[in-house]
Structures
1.
Amino acid sequence: MKEVQIGMIGYKFMGKAHSHAYRDLPMFFPDAPAPVMNAICGRDEAGVREAAKRFGWAHAVTDWRELVARPDIDVVDINAPSDAHKEIAIAAAKAGKHLFCEKPLALSLADAREMLAAAEAAGVKHMAGLNYRFAPAIRLAKKLIEEGRIGRIHHFRAVFLQDWLVDPAFPLVWRLKKEVAGSGSHGDLNAHLIDLARYLVGEINEVAGMSETFVRRRPIAESMSGLNAQGSADGPSGEVTVDDATLFLARFAGGALGSFEATRFAAGHRCTNGFEINGSEGSLRFDFERMNELEVYFTGDADDVQGFRRVLATDPAHAYMEAWWPPGHTIGFEHTFVHEALELMEAIRDDRQPEPNFRDGIRCQEVLEAVDISIAERRWVAIAELKEDDHD
Amino acid sequence: MKEVQIGMIGYKFMGKAHSHAYRDLPMFFPDAPAPVMNAICGRDEAGVREAAKRFGWAHAVTDWRELVARPDIDVVDINAPSDAHKEIAIAAAKAGKHLFCEKPLALSLADAREMLAAAEAAGVKHMAGLNYRFAPAIRLAKKLIEEGRIGRIHHFRAVFLQDWLVDPAFPLVWRLKKEVAGSGSHGDLNAHLIDLARYLVGEINEVAGMSETFVRRRPIAESMSGLNAQGSADGPSGEVTVDDATLFLARFAGGALGSFEATRFAAGHRCTNGFEINGSEGSLRFDFERMNELEVYFTGDADDVQGFRRVLATDPAHAYMEAWWPPGHTIGFEHTFVHEALELMEAIRDDRQPEPNFRDGIRCQEVLEAVDISIAERRWVAIAELKEDDHD
Amino acid sequence: MKEVQIGMIGYKFMGKAHSHAYRDLPMFFPDAPAPVMNAICGRDEAGVREAAKRFGWAHAVTDWRELVARPDIDVVDINAPSDAHKEIAIAAAKAGKHLFCEKPLALSLADAREMLAAAEAAGVKHMAGLNYRFAPAIRLAKKLIEEGRIGRIHHFRAVFLQDWLVDPAFPLVWRLKKEVAGSGSHGDLNAHLIDLARYLVGEINEVAGMSETFVRRRPIAESMSGLNAQGSADGPSGEVTVDDATLFLARFAGGALGSFEATRFAAGHRCTNGFEINGSEGSLRFDFERMNELEVYFTGDADDVQGFRRVLATDPAHAYMEAWWPPGHTIGFEHTFVHEALELMEAIRDDRQPEPNFRDGIRCQEVLEAVDISIAERRWVAIAELKEDDHD
Amino acid sequence: MKEVQIGMIGYKFMGKAHSHAYRDLPMFFPDAPAPVMNAICGRDEAGVREAAKRFGWAHAVTDWRELVARPDIDVVDINAPSDAHKEIAIAAAKAGKHLFCEKPLALSLADAREMLAAAEAAGVKHMAGLNYRFAPAIRLAKKLIEEGRIGRIHHFRAVFLQDWLVDPAFPLVWRLKKEVAGSGSHGDLNAHLIDLARYLVGEINEVAGMSETFVRRRPIAESMSGLNAQGSADGPSGEVTVDDATLFLARFAGGALGSFEATRFAAGHRCTNGFEINGSEGSLRFDFERMNELEVYFTGDADDVQGFRRVLATDPAHAYMEAWWPPGHTIGFEHTFVHEALELMEAIRDDRQPEPNFRDGIRCQEVLEAVDISIAERRWVAIAELKEDDHD
């Protein structure tokens, strides 16, 4: 297999990131099958035509059913708004397409499970878009843990801090409406932390959470792209129906204690996706604003030189980096998507499920929903309460 | 009033820190009443004599009742193990002595309340030993908050991370025995975080917590001073009866969300007492391992130069610093005790209660106990549940 | 003008970086003329064919004269080894091609001047490849200085620290041979620092330098790409004929004092291209290993909150960033080349010389050579000593 | 020997630091001979009486000759302004007193040599006040170097950055007058860097320097204590006769290259005394504003976890720290003087010369003067040019 034909639905922030990944992949990882940017789909004809031209897609369509039906498509890449994921994914699976779906998989756990069932019934590959796993520093963390160099893990504490909602005049964009986004900071940001926690530390047994919406009405927005938006403080306002911040405590199956916090009200933090892990043999620390770095501590270091090391994960010893630039020459946010696309291409070539896949997306969704229940019922909730007997 | 006669009970880690504070105070803050190091008390005669000589106390006694009874003592400074606080404090109050008691005030909230009642009945000053308030960087944080420069507070997240228990061969010192220490990382470390939270953000309404003892048996220790100890891995072992780590979520009366974590299992952290506060106008960040620094962010900074500032709180604009050295010349841990002693001297001179006092110690204890109940009953606990109708 | 046809000579480290820039440019900066990757040239036929395919060039040739002669080429991009720059550039200029030449322009100042003369005689655009100017954080530094927000500049101190030569078994690659590379750390690394100094602070009047070659013989290398190389410690060795480290002091025309250091022997530094600027109103600090950040200090900040701010230059207020990702989503090394290519495209479209151009390359070369003279003659050397009466 | 009687001349910034050291020493280092604060001397009677009372000296005198003549004095501690050092030191030596003289020893190398000759003729101990050597992090650096853990040293680069002169309205204090201070940033700040360089890397062979006085006239000051001063911008002004900034390059006897910079015009730096050392096996980094930390890098670390470690030098494995507080509890500027006084006490007890002593002060002075000559004559100056045939 030399090439994989891609059809993509959605062309905003994630659509741009995925498109760039497909463009870069063959140049930096020439040994993998090359993604072919076949068709892109969006509801606005002018918008999708412009995106196709700019991003480099051969065809532009406005009906996702048309795209899903095309015989010249191998993979359907779904990064449309979250409320559209389920229907598209199921249809694409039925059409025999491999699936690559941005997180969150769906608006509910039940929907996500339907999507997985459809994918499994169709025998297609299913990948969940959780890009942070693909930072070289995160891969290094994984390697150190797997090799036992951090020992038994006692603590995982993570925060995903943003500040784009601190200004009460920021408008009511779609991410603040429950019916479209499903959830606020919780589904958007904690989803990433939960995936990293599972990837690095393992499954979570139980959770207890708390959330808040600090600003309950906001001006109605005109348009939004990425996290930028236009609105007017004098015009009409609407209700924010998602959480501004959600925190929770967790107990891992392996015995570690977890602390999670997602907020869009942390002034000064544009995108602090950070965590620390403390084990019996050492500790690890990561902050996405310095994504090329991993701080590493070993209890076994000589007595007089114990301290966290700032490891710049740009050496040949670090995953992916030989494909890019010499040591010390850093990469950025977008590169995580190139590595994610690489995993998808290699999984298809090797006829295995990519990681993370829909099962990971569902595990993540289970924790998110357990936290929601915990908040509603003011109690600890075991993840096992959400399990289906016959399925997972 | 020119001088204040001190009698101190206890001469280990805190006794050393307090002694040094009394020695330094007159040199650096000559306008305050001078503490006179009159008598020191400890159960071991040789030990207390040696401490008296080394630290500079005029007299050494082995019976705290004798010290409390001395007519030439104005203040009784209690830094003996926690289980002795109550009896001494009540006796000293009855003898008309001002009280300066290390945290935690007592092993239980009920005991702490008895102590306050005794102090109030006797009309004496009562100070609680919560030294971190007295770091210049913390005073700066307080000032910025009080002046509204951070705006309305949305988030307080704090950790007190130590690592002296990561090694399972570390012995069973008194701090690991519930009957002496009352509690583990929770009472020892969260107590400080709660006091800082109350000082900076305000009262807490409700909490939900989680705790763990990772290593449940340890070798029996011979002796312990400070956090150092001697033990033998081959000898007999005993049960650890306190928590190694305790985390909790909190909701403040003012609407902020709080996250607290105390642990002695955070490899690589000798003494990270750190927090971050996010407000509507800015943020603050502190880490005791860099205690001379406060990181400060303002949302109102010009668009192109927004970022956390590393403020070195050693300028004349910062509390206490003109008494010490020129800007850029840092101070250390022990200086917080000098400032604490200054507050006590000035409160006595001005005939007012020092801050923090036993009421603060009780507020802190209420939160600690609410967390304990929350952990035992696996539910959210309102601080109001612990209030006495007629007292607080 | 919608498109610009590119012919590129060289396909190793810089060839890869330039190729990627041409690929990315139309997607992220669609309003600029699009570079068309027409033809690539290299001496090894298999190698250049492979590079053409991988990087996305339409044609591959092995004779640079053929490439220069093609009528369908608008720009000749020269990133072959330094000793080939002059001949190619002059021929390309004579053929009426715009020039884009990697630094250093040539092996000597005299050669560089010939290249400029040829470009001017032909009336073509001439750009010098000094990519670090194009980091958003550097653009922010430039803006703050130009707007007077840092005041009069007193100090510029810069280091370019690498460590790939610390191991004496590292082989004798072409960068260590004077006849090919022209110079060692001086021409390779100080060239960048000098360009940044000129860009941000202004012209240099005089210099005094010092250099050293710590390891004078090394194993002969087989091959080298980027900074990686293969060699054998047991095989034959050869002489290192360039400097491992070169330092110099400088006095700027505007009165500032400068300190420059380039070395490949700074263990722990993969690529620390860093500087600090101190002015009468504030200071700036940059480190390429954290290239998305600029530290900024203002003397005018309120007395109690003075400190260096860590500005993450990923906001819409920062140059280029609206084209990429939302705030807090960082970019990497390669993006500087995209911005560099953007400048070239826009300069051609607007019929103006790009910045930096060959004049900047020559100014940089003058300083480099003045330092060389200073080292040889152990004295201060004025840049004016190297000026041609009739030209610069 | 149990006690050492001290007589001290000077009672401003350094007098305060020394006094505090004598007060603290017996409490924290009880095994050393105890300094007895016998007599303090200053020209202003009220001032010196006040200082004696505040700092804890038994007697106050206004004539240093009286102090030097007292039979009950063992050590004369000289921290008066630099122009008074020589006469006092020689007289004290003749009176058989041990000498403890703040840096710079004298206004000239010749004077410093006379002082050493006097001390040697009298057979007394002579200590130079270079306190930074006594930071635990610096001791750790020394240990790592001595044990060969950093390998052969290639680079030493150091800066001492302050900013108290950036404001042109800052008054003309004594430190800005050559006849009193001897020199500006060079003698004040580079002296410390040179001493650290010698202590850690070894002797310097040759230097080439540059200096500048950015603000040449300043308002005349009324009074000055420490680095604070009062002045009036409208009143009369006077000429600044010392350097605001001095930089120099150096070549060490061992082959390392050195870069030194001292300035009082580095906005944002209150007291950045920092350096980095690069060796063949690792690197070290220090910044006095974070004086409890040493950053350490080892080339021998595993390939995937190479990085600078932030070592908090507060563990029992670090010099002096067991005498203070538990790990993670930091110390400050003043503690360096306690350790310095400890060295003096132990040297007297053990009948050996303390380190650093007058010979170190002279070595330092030689480098300072070689730089001055280099600046005046615009050439490299070998330290050997300043050597006396018959003495050093």
2.
Amino acid sequence: MGKVYLVGAGPGAPDLLTLRGARLLAEADIVFFDALVHPGTLALAAKAKKVAVGKRCGQVSTDQRYINGHLVDAAQAHAVVVRLKGGDPMLFGRAQEEIAELETAGVEYEVVPGITAALAASAQLGVSLTRRGVARSVTFATPRVGDGEDESANHWVGSAANADTTVLYMAAGHAATHARELIAAGKSAGTPVICIESATLPEERRVATTLGGLLRGIPGNGGPALLCIGEVYREWLADAQRMRPDAGQRQTTVEQCSLN
Amino acid sequence: MGKVYLVGAGPGAPDLLTLRGARLLAEADIVFFDALVHPGTLALAAKAKKVAVGKRCGQVSTDQRYINGHLVDAAQAHAVVVRLKGGDPMLFGRAQEEIAELETAGVEYEVVPGITAALAASAQLGVSLTRRGVARSVTFATPRVGDGEDESANHWVGSAANADTTVLYMAAGHAATHARELIAAGKSAGTPVICIESATLPEERRVATTLGGLLRGIPGNGGPALLCIGEVYREWLADAQRMRPDAGQRQTTVEQCSLN
């Protein structure tokens, strides 16, 4: 019986994988990977059979039960099975369902954390999620729009509206709706927002605006995007508005907005 | 003029550093490192001069201005300067002050993200921070107890009490106070809590309880500890209460508590 490793591939750039993740990929006999995993990361699994399971941003395109079952089956046939997931396995993935299936089947497993997109975005922007005197709490959330699938769908607003800094994952497509919800919950329309798409990849793009500006929606190129919201971004947005792009501000667009 | 890299060393275990961080350490001429950085991580900086700046868990033991100034000075003398910080640089560090000083001095810099402790703890516990139908928002916060240093000190409660999952950093020492604040803000006393100390290191310890149980404080061994709070931990706590330690539950203590 083999062992299954749930490995976080990190935000995009292949060299943001952990050393442990890289070692396990090199040892892997078979790798099940998400759609967003970089080809350069997959290439580290030199001797492994590679199976695409086509999940993107937490959406299911391969049936989750199919993935769960395949992990258990693979552990019967191979010593080292890697389930390679974008970002970190324990944040906005469906790792818990995979873990439950492995536990039920008595398959040994280990989780290897990965750099989650919000941390990578912060590094790219040069803006701390927390900052002395400005922010000592940060909320990560995935809002869901009107699908009624689960009752916790609207809980995110209370936490996000009260956090000093908020990062919304998989939310850019309904940015205007989420901005409206946050403003209704008491967040100022002048709160700075930076939308960052494809963070750490060459095609990385940033759009700087405010919650009020976000009400008009946000342009996107189809890459995975984060909405970074909070006072910690005020200086960055003001600099972008003054058209003083520094080395860190590649491909930055400033949407029409007021910081007041 | 050299370049300064602010590198996240990750949660503890040296192989949870990123590939990029490892490469930069190997290239570094000089490394300024925090007290909590593992000797095995430092050893990767084979040719670098190593300077301890003695910060632990965000507390300042070396004056922050001293560190800021030294980074600028080092960039005049060395090509590759690494500032190695525990966890991730952009979460609960003082990176923004270092970045501001580098920008003012016109020194080029880059931030390399690291695995933050909450993600490492989740991997160790095998419990997702988010989970379909249970949790779609997570708050990370550092409460501060009555020092009056900054006015945002109490904002954390609103966000933490409303989040589905909450992870408190640098909070175990005043666990009872924080539990009282969260209960006063509406969080149920039966909410499961896992305190994890020295996550990913051989001396890792877990204490499982509830917010109500936390009112009696929590025993600690002096290592960096997280308080992980939320319904996602209910099953883990129930298993621990039934004394069915699995492979993942090394050094686990269950405090007297009720899950209701």
